[in-house]
Amino acid sequence: MTVTWEELGWERLAAGVGRCRLPGWDCTAGLVVGDGGALLVDAGSSLGEGSRLRTQAQWLAGHRVTHLALTHPHFDHVFGAAAFAGAEVYGAVGMDTVFAHERAELRADAVHNGLDQDAADEAIDALVHPRHQVSGEWTLDLDGGRQVLLANLGPAHTAHDLVVLVPGTAAGDREVVFCGDLVEESGEPQAGRDAVPSRWPAALDRLLDLGGEDALYVPGHGAVVDAEFVRRQRDALAARFGVSG
Predict the structure, then answer these.
(1) In the chain, which residue ranges form alpha helices assigned H by DSSP?
(2) Are 197 and 243 in contact (CB under 8 A)?
């Protein structure tokens, strides 16, 4: 079955690169397609949502999702991961500790924010731990000349923040940076109990250094933004939390 990104409600950002905004929490999921592999960025808020993402991603890629990158350990980004059986799962180093020892807190946060209790229980029971833990930078080869860079920029929004940088491969394509919740557009950046606000502005400085001025920055929630938006959000977070420099 051949479908376009737009027919499935996805936003095409570059050749073989796109994202969708999921209902409920306006959470972003991204897709990067190579000749023989495909990377999904974040997995949705439930097994049902993850299954729908897997089906759509396979239609768009023409083959199964081979890699899954989880940008941080919040339920709306990770609870669908078990739907991607066989995929190589990546997360920032230490995320597996959260999944092992803070399951009750993850479930409680999901239910508090409106996820059905049965869906939360199902996701917790099937929770997938990242096999590959990124402590610095990690380059993935998706075949056909398509490479992506995973970079651990935390602690900031959480103690375990991973971003995905996708270089442009076609003429006129801009680099695409999947930011997770280091950047949010549809609301003020959320700083929960697991945030490290004193480090957040510096993480955004690193994000801008990696992506550069011309990249498309894809927030964890909201519309795609540019470097100037990220810079303004960096300055607002520094002012909000009293971080100098």
Answers:
(1) 47-61, 75-78, 95-101, 103-112, 117-125, 200-211, 227-241
(2) yes
User: DSSP 3-state assignment of 93?
Assistant: coil
Question: What are the DSSP E strand ranges found in the chain?
Answer: 11-14, 17-21, 28-33, 38-41, 67-69, 88-92, 132-134, 137-141, 147-152, 162-166, 176-178, 216-218
End-to-end Cα distance, the chain: 52
61: left (phi > 0), else alpha (psi -120 to 50), else beta?
Answer: alpha
Ramachandran bin of 198, using left for φ above 0, alpha for ψ from -120 to 50, beta for the remaining angles: alpha
The percentage of residues in the chain with a pLDDT greater than 70, rounded to a whole number, is: 99
For residues 185 and 110, give the distance between their C-alpha atoms in angstroms, rounded to a whole number. 21
- For tokens 């299954």, what's the residue? 51
Nearest Cα to Cα of residue 179 among 216, 147, 141? 216
On the question of a cis peptide bond just before residue 167, with omega within 30 degrees of 0, the verdict is no
The pTM (predicted TM-score) of the whole model is 0.97
Strands 88-92 and 67-69: parallel
pLDDT in tens, 57-74: 999 999 999 999 999 999
Mean pLDDT of the chain: 96
The answer to whether the CB of 27 falls within 8 A of the CB of 44 is: yes
In angstroms, what CA-CA distances link 26 with 69, 138, 184?
18, 28, 10
- Residue 75, token pair as written in the block: 């339920």
Mean of the pLDDT values across residues 126-140?
Answer: 96
The pLDDT of residue 244 is: 82
